[in-house]
Amino acid sequence: MNQNPSDPTNPDAPWEEAMSRDFDARVRDLHEAPIDFTSVKGKAHKIRRNRRAAVAGGILGVAAIFTPIAVLTNGGGTSGKEPGFAPEVSETDPAPDAGPDYLVDRVWHQADGDTVELDQAYDSAVLWDGQLVATRFGGEVYSTADVIDADGDVVRSFSTTGSVVVNDAGTTIAWVDSDGAVMTAWDDEERSLGEVDLAAPGEASAWTAAAVTGGPDCNEEADGCIVYVNSNLGEESRSYSSQGVSDIVASGVTKVHDADSMGAVTVINDVTEFLDTCGGIYEVPNAEYRWETCDYQVHGSSPDGRYVVGLPSQFDGLGPREITILDAETGDPTAGRYAPEGRDAFIRAEVAWTDEGTLAFAAYDGARWHLMEMEPDGSITELATADGSDVDSPFVLIGH
Question: Per-domain residue ranges for the chain?
Answer without folding.
Answer: 15-72+88-399
